[in-house]
Amino acid sequence: MDSGGNSLPSGPDGVKRKVSYFYDPEVGNYYYGQGHPMKPHRIRMTHALLAHYGLLQHMQVLKPVPARDRDLCRFHADDYVSFLRSITPETQQDQLRQLKRFNVGEDCPVFDGLYSFCQTYAGGSVGGAVKLNHGLCDIAINWAGGLHHAKKCEASGFCYVNDIVLAILELLKVHERVLYVDIDIHHGDGVEEAFYTTDRVMTVSFHKFGDYFPGTGDIRDIGYGKGKYYSLNVPLDDGIDDESYQSLFRPIMGKVMEIFKPGAVVLQCGADSLSGDRLGCFNLSIRGHAECVKYMRSFNVPVLLVGGGGYTIRNVARCWCYETGVALGIELDDKMPQHEYYEYFGPDYTLHVAPSNMENKNTRPILDDIRVKLLEYLSTLQHAPSVPFQERPPDTEFHEEDEDQQDPDQRWDPDSDMEVDDNRPISIRSRVKREIMEPDLKDAEDVKETADHARDNTAVSFSTGSTSLKPPNPNLGSDQQEACVKMEQDSSNKPPDQPADMNL
Ligand SMILES: [Zn+2]
């Protein structure tokens, strides 16, 4: 087994991993609007499944600290962040020029609580990075994150702020090299663009390419300047199945781990690459999708798992629940436990669903060509490494006890901001297509989700003050059971972190 990078605090060969899971019980209440395919409710459905499969008591459950303006401004432009903070559904008519300028209004609508939503999902990913940096967990999970299309000064593809870029910037404070892997069906353009000219972050995106949003991610796009060969793109066609996908994922990622030796990995687990997705056209099973998590986990390197796309929400919840099990090393029963969203999962009420019989347009010769090409890029890197590939020093300078003594306003060194790439070639940004939205409400999931939105909008059933994690009590009803698993308020990203050398 290849094992690049650094060993986990829990030991190199352990089956179990220490997992920190970030969840805000409010996140399911944010609502993009009727007919919009992006439904934060899927995060709450995932959480309910985790609770009823009994997984919450095996991980540290943390409520993210909302990211502040200055945290978001580590990547995003000040005026864009101010705009996101101030815009409301009531005032948007007076700001038409700004809406257009920041690409907000259509695919990325203004909705109630938009800015808090951004703060919450970004807070989870950055909080996860801080936990990993401090060696407090082996795997951090934020299913609300993974909004990979957001740009420095622009919303895109249902994404407003790029929590992934922010989390990677945090990881770079401690790790010389960070690997980003993206298995969403869409190209991870926002993250690639942010790190296109650096050799400290390698981005690898597997996506549908050709007449598909966002239009970028050609196999020939490999990075620029110092970043040449540090952006990799794996263009795929409709109907790819588990076997075809793994025939690329494993050899490519195995080689990347061997050559790049990252100190930490961020894996974007967009679930729109699953079979039967409302916007997607791949044919992956949940096991096939989760195989990527299993494989990246096997290298004993700290991993941040984030969500992303995923528009058939019952399958998104299935997938991220199963992948949380994979992170923990717990195999889940296919028979789903009774819970408040059980009716979404009929008629079979199982965790797994069979992929379809759609045609796989990715023929063996095409897949072979793609694999050969990418391995060729990587062998070029192998023979000309521009970053010294040595192990990083241990995290001894980080002690939780010290953190409370420090001024939270000094959390990030304002002078340490990296130059985030305004120099990349223009061609990448000019090939943008719109993500297709289906404005109808005929999907039964939509109707249920709209009803649940109305029902849950006022209900907050979580206590957030306690640190106790108790097993579910079979004598309690589901609401009471949920309340048994108390969440901790994440305090790990409040104190200042070591200012990093950001001369990328
Ligand atoms: Zn997507």
TrEMBL record:
Domain annotation Histone deacetylase: ranges: 36-324
Subcellular location, record wording: Nucleus
Disordered, as annotated region: 385-504
Enzyme class name: hydrolase
Biased composition (Basic and acidic residues): 433-456
Active site: H149 (proton acceptor)
Ranges of compositional bias, category Polar residues: 458-481
Keyword vocabulary terms for this entry: Chromatin regulator, Hydrolase, Metal-binding, Nucleus, Repressor, Transcription, Transcription regulation
Compositionally biased intervals (Acidic residues): 398-407
Residues reported in the UniProt entry to bind substrate: D107, G157, Y311
Keyword Metal-binding: yes
Primary location group: nucleus
Keyword Iron attached: no
CC cofactor: Zn(2+)
Family per record: Belongs to the histone deacetylase family. HD Type 1 subfamily.
Protein name per its UniProtKB record: Histone deacetylase
Record lineage: Eukaryota, Viridiplantae, Streptophyta, Embryophyta, Tracheophyta
